[in-house]
Amino acid sequence: MAQKYETKQMDQPKPNPFENALEQLRIAAEYLKLDEGIHQILANPKRQLTVSLPVRMDNGKTRVFTGYRVQYNDARGPFKGGIRYHPGVTLDEVKALSAWMTWKTSVANIPYGGAKGGIICDPKHMSPGELERMTRRFAAAIAPIIGPYKDIPAPDVYTNSQTMAWILDTYSTLEGFMAPAVITGKPISLGGSLGRDKATGRGAVFCTVEAAKVNKIDLKRATFAVQGFGNAGSNFAEILQTYGSKLMGASDSKGAITSKTPMDADKLIAYKEKTGSVVGFPGSQPITDKELLQLDVDILSPAALENSILPDTARGVKAKIITECANGPTTPEADKILHANKVFMIPDILANSGGVIVSYLEWVQNLERISWTEAEVNDMLEKKITGAFKDVHDASVKHGVDMRTGAMIVGVGRVAEAVKTLGTFP
Ligand code: NAD
What we know:
- The protein is of the alpha/beta class.
- Among the domains are: 44-182, Leucine Dehydrogenase, chain A, domain 1 (Rossmann fold); 199-351, Rossmann fold (3-Layer(aba) Sandwich), CATH 3.40.50.720.
- It is 45% helix and 18% strand.
- Helix 14 packs across helix 15 (403-422).
């Protein structure tokens, strides 16, 4: 049976995520002394597609869903970015996520641009059959603008490897040949990469290891909390725990918990799989979302959705390091407060780039008809993401700025250089 699904309302009004993205771009443009024309190009998505999706529901009625694919910039390579299913999806959210993808692939220095997709729907209230029909209709609707050398989608919130398999099958059926490189995050049986399922969490841990070195924090004794115990958050917890760090708090859409003694991330994953939530985990106590974000821990990972750390929450954050597994969890105002309070921020476009880095490795394996072992994939991920961390940290030290601005200087700088060198058509 479909589980009750609710998105918690935070205590303060939420800013428009695309306005946040433009504000971050404006700050980077100032440091980079960007030409006004280049800044304008980077402040606008190259292509925005809105589609209507008629879907036969199980009760025999037809419902029309709205979906989006925003292709932000492809100066450095084909568009790349996930597809999200959520009732709160808006065009501005998808635009923001597509801009962040553009800077993210650039920070990771992989040959991609940035895109994002989404459908306004409540997947927890839909049957597998309804989800499959909606996904296939969406795949058919965006088929003209995606492709292995054009735009390569991937999973995001409430989509998974099965969703990717339906998109692959629909696209390949329409094209008349099997095209595994059109999508990443696929099941292994269809050309997916070993290590992709845990890549975002693993990459975030590699960044946290580097941040701990910079901040002289011993991970063997460190404590941490995770907001949003889904794919990214639970894998982050499971892998960080192998370094000796202790999980003291977690949450999902149904609520937040803490515990006086460290929680075993593997057991919490199994408990959530069985019951549908972290709430009620044996030995834990319920707390509010804000209390979770303000727990007295060394490392905090927001791994749910945008705008979860607002100014009022930021003032009470006690963590020394924030690892943003989620995209856009911290508003620009909250960022300033955290920076002033000397919280070391590993920004989303760096912290969660492990997912797109291993998506890139999956795509390369598909195009080259080769396959790497999980150890080889994890090794390449570690080299790529620690290299990206160093580039961002060096930029933040050189310009005397926080890590987010450092990441934007690196990410926007490379895209701006590519846009400038390509020139303006015609
Ligand atoms: P997911 O659907 O697996 O997990 C999301 C989790 O967040 C769920 O446990 C859900 O219950 C929880 N959640 C939702 N609303 C919440 C709320 N208000 N408070 C607390 N928890 C809440 O999704 P995911 O793939 O893990 O993505 C999470 C974030 O990470 C998103 O911002 C996504 O864009 C980002 N991200 C994911 C990947 C990836 O490879 N999965 C890659 C890069 C970035």
